[in-house]
Design a protein that fits this description.
The chain is of the alpha+beta class. The chain contains three helices and four strands. It is flat, with a radius of gyration of 15 Å.
Length: 105
Amino acid sequence: MPPPFEFASTSKYHQEKFHLLFLPIQETHYKSLIATPTFAEPIKKARESGHNIGLSITPFPPQGSALPNHFVSLDQMTTPELIPKFFRAIELLQQPIETILQELN
C-alpha cells in the first residue's frame, strides 16, 4: 500500500501537515474518506467544488480518551505525559472506524 498523501495548508499563523489515508471501498467512481473534524474542512471544500467524495467524520480525541479535547496532533503535545495519551487516543479510534467501515458496506 502506498504511503498516505501529505497536504500542507498555510495560514496567517502557522503551517500544518496532515496525512490522508485512502481506504479502498468498492463503489463505482466514488471515494469515501474518514476524517476527524479538524481535518475534514479541505474534504468538505472539495465536495462543495463538485468532487464526488463521501465523508465520514469521527471525533478526536475519541470518547474515553484521557487526552484534552484541544490536542489533535502529536506536535501539539506540550508535556511528555501527553504523548502516551495521544497514542492511546489513536488506538481508541479503531472501534469508531470499524463501525464506519461496516456502515459503508
